[in-house]
Amino acid sequence: MSKRERKKEIPTFCIEFGKHLRALRLEKDVSIEEIAFKAGIDAQNLRKYELGKQEMKISMLKRIADAFDMTTSELLSFDK
Q: Which residue intervals define the domain HTH cro/C1-type in the entry (predicted)?
């Protein structure tokens, strides 16, 4: 079994949330690097979240919401 086959499938919600995250960032006209810096994470990881290639822990969700000056509830409020 290859490494690719062992990777678990990313839930659809994570993919849709990533699209929402990117749209929000573009709407607010901020770079991926700026949000990543404010959240204290690597821009490459944030890019993976936006592309739906990586699941996010709740603690990371909180940090990203803070970077957008939003609550986690506000950040999660989008049409799925």
A: 21-75
